[in-house]
Amino acid sequence: MDNDDVIDVLNDLIETSKDGEYGFRTSAEYARTDALRTLLLARADECKQAIDELQVHVTRFGGKPQQSGSIGGALHRGWVAMRTKLTDFDNEAILEECERGEDLAVNRYRKALQEDLPEDVRALVLRQSEGVKRNHDQIKRLRDEARAAS
Known about the structure:
83% helix, mainly alpha, Ferritin-like, PA2169 family four-helix-bundle protein, CHP02284, DUF2383, elongated, Ferritin
């Protein structure tokens, strides 16, 4: 895999992580409890840390780090905001939207790990992938608990 290919994979993960960061921050604005708001902001901070780590490697390989999230991510955040204004958007609905974003992130990291990445980059992507899976599972568990409580 040449440097340009590595940069492309890393920039795709940066874009995914930016979508996650922005998505968690947007969802935190609408959270109905302080506990959920705090959790979502912590997840946003973890995404920001992942972005910072990935950007270092993009630069190391001679590339320019991705500076924004995806159009799809922006549309999703807009949908969250609109849905909140039009309906009684409860924590269950917020968690459903967060899980959708995390499903995408899990798939993007899985795809990145199928590439022939340099060992140090693979180790970073694997570590971050495990964190994304933990986030997904936690969000899904909380969503299931919210469903059971309603």
